[in-house]
Write a sequence for this structure.
């Protein structure tokens, strides 16, 4: 058995009286895409924020390569190789692709006592990395606001991969996207996985999960409902698990099986 | 996937690319304003050496505070206490040097330290409380103004402190703010007849343009520094990021709070440069100086293409906005137009520039 890249054991997270997570355990292996499913408010975002250092767990352990770690800021998480692509916070639309790509890690060029942003290098790398993901930019200084939703997600993913992410967390990267764009993002996920990076993929959409997932974990009201490997579970079973079985079955019947 | 060339991308001409920039609105404004005054005030002396110096100095004053306001606005915040800060710094310099007898250089340094500490406090309160900077700095607009008058009255029984000139002679730091350079060059220009000389009084025989005041050098230096910082450095990228989306910036490790606090301090620094130059020029400080300067700075910045909500803008644009401001204010005076029209004219320019800026910004950033 391989040691997981990251393993979270019995994570609890309380916000005052609100128990957002009541003991969740999830792990990711190298080159694996672990899908995290669950209804609104299940605690998925809270969980990955705990993983990336935005929140500190109330109790529970985080192990990386078998050693316990503790992140007190997203910066520390990043330095340990955990990169997160937040759904709506991924990119700043007013800024250029290059400025976004390098945000927080701008390459510097020195002359004398002054150091400046090395745009030449930054532009070249950005263009090359985007091309690897199958997106040909018009120019690296075009604003991210002029890109499509899928392209923006791809810039964020390319950025994470370039900066040596070991674990890539994607929070609902496909929820606002059309069919083509979703397919592009899913194929990007596939490329990234093949390079040995572990992926946590959050989605509401069972079909998107089935398309790329190697393992599936369903959260409900802050608890793990179950984990299944690819091939052990059918899309319908996964859907039922997510929505809490019984109720959904009857709802679905009344909607004529269209959900 | 797609071929190397995306068929949906039209070739953009080099001209279009050169034109579509954040400063375009301000550039058009400058052209418009100069054309206007060349046609109505050409013979008034406005474009002679003295006239240019006149509106040049006023524009430079606006530019000094506009640079600070610009970087701060791009970082997503406002500073409404700039005007009060100008009054405060001026009084501090005059109090320490004239009233309490400290050397002028020390008084100036004390003013900078105090002002920047208050700027840091502004910033700290904004980032810690999460309140809009509009409110926090509005509070400081009143607090600082009131404190300035209080300090002046309790220590001198006056709100105006004169006699600064008597203590500045030979002080190198005072010269940095109140001195003039190229004096010999301008005298030479006058000697060969390119510039008029005074014909009577105690300055008879001297050039009417004595030299370039240090205020202008400060303005140019601050604009160049601000432009370089914003567009060419890592810190500049953080300024854009802090104002564009502070959460997104925070999540990738940009020290957003530090950036914002530093920009509040820089705004205070610029206000103090303005105040020091003014005190040196007038030879006095008054507790009511700088009223409304914060708005004039913000207007220059907005004419210059910056987005009020942050994340977008240009220091060069803000400098052009300051130039428009200075030329219009002094130009109407040269043209002999009723000065109330200054405000009308300024309002119209503000509106036109902002409308044009909005179009350009949408073109560049794909905003809807
Ligand atoms: N900072 C916070 N303070 C208080 N309660 C919070 C906080 N963050 C999350 N919660 C609560 O924790 C629960 C889980 O929220 P979370 O955002 O993790 O859900 P989610 O699974 O990501 O849902 P969605 O699918 O809608 O994104 C919710 O009930 C939410 O109200
Ligand atoms: Mg969520």
């Amino acid at each position: 058995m391989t040691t997981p890249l990251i393993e979270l054991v019995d994570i609890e997270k309380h916000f005052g009286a609100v128990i957002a997570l009541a003991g969740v355990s999830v792990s990711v292996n190298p080159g694996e895409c672990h899908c995290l499913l669950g209804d609104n408010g299940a605690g998925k975002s809270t969980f990955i924020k705990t993983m990336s250092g935005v929140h500190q767990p109330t109790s529970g352990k985080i192990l990386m390569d078998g050693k316990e770690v503790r992140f007190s800021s997203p910066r520390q998480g990043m330095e340990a190789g955990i990169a997160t692509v937040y759904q709506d916070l991924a990119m700043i639309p007013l800024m250029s692709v290059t400025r976004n790509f390098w945000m927080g890690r701008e390459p510097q060029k020195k002359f004398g006592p002054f150091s400046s942003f090395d745009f030449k290098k930054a532009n070249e790398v950005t263009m090359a990395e985007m091309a690897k993901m199958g997106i040909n930019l018009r120019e690296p200084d075009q604003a991210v606001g002029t890109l499509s939703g899928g392209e923006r997600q791809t810039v964020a993913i390319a950025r994470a991969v370039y900066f040596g992410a070991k674990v890539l967390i994607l929070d609902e990267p496909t929820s606002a996207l059309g069919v083509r764009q979703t397919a592009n993002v899913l194929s990007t996920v596939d490329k990234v996985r093949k390079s040995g990076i572990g992926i946590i993929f959050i989605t509401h959409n069972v079909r998107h999960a089935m398309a790329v997932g190697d393992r599936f974990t369903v959260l409900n009201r802050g608890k793990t409902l179950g984990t299944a490997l690819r091939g052990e579970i059918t899309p319908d079973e996964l859907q039922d698990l997510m929505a809490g079985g019984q109720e959904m079955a009857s709802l679905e019947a009344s909607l004529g099986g269209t959900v | 996937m797609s071929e190397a060339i995306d068929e949906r991308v039209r070739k953009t001409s080099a001209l279009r690319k050169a034109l579509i920039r954040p400063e375009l609105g301000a550039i058009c404004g400058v052209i418009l304003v100069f054309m206007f005054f060349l046609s109505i005030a050409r013979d008034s002396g406005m474009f002679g050496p003295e006239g240019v110096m006149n509106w040049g100095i006023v524009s430079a004053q606006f530019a000094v505070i506009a640079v600070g306001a610009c970087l701060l606005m791009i970082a997503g915040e406002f500073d409404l206490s700039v005007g009060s800060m100008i009054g405060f710094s001026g009084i501090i310099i005059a109090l320490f040097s004239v009233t309490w007898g400290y050397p002028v250089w020390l008084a100036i340094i004390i003013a900078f330290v105090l002002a920047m500490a208050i700027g840091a406090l502004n910033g700290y309160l904004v980032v810690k409380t999460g309140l809009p900077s509009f409110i926090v700095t509005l509070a400081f607009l009143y607090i600082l103004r009131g404190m300035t008058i209080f300090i002046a009255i309790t220590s001198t029984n006056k709100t105006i402190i004169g006699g600064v000139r008597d203590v500045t002679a030979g002080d190198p730091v005072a010269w940095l703010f109140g001195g003039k350079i190229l004096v010999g060059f301008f005298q030479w220009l006058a000697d060969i007849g390119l510039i008029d000389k005074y014909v009577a009084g105690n300055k008879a025989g001297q050039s009417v343009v004595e030299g370039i005041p240090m205020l202008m050098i400060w303005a140019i230096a601050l604009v160049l520094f601000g432009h370089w910082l914003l567009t060419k450095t890592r810190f500049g990228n953080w300024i854009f990021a802090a104002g564009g989306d502070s959460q997104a910036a925070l999540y990738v490790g940009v020290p957003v709070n530090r950036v914002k606090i530093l920009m509040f301090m820089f705004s205070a620094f610029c206000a103090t440069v303005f105040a020091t130059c003014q005190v040196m020029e007038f030879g006095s400080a008054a507790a009511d100086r700088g009223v409304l300067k914060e708005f004039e700075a913000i207007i220059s910045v907005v004419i210059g293409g910056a987005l009020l909500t942050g994340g977008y803008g240009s220091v060069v644009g803000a400098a052009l906005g300051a130039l428009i401001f200075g030329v219009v204010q002094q130009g109407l005076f040269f043209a002999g137009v009723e000065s109330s029209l200054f405000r009308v004219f300024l309002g119209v320019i503000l509106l036109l520039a902002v409308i044009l800026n909005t179009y350009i910004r949408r073109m560049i950033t794909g905003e809807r």
Remarks:
- Residues 256-282 of chain B form the longest helix (27 residues).
- Residues A 15, 18, 20, 38, 40-46 surround adenosine-5'-triphosphate (ligand 1) (CB under 6 Å).
- Chain B touches chain A at residues 1-2, 4-6, 9, 228, 232-234, 236-238, 240-241, 244-245, 247-254, 307, 311-312, 364-367 (CB under 8 Å).
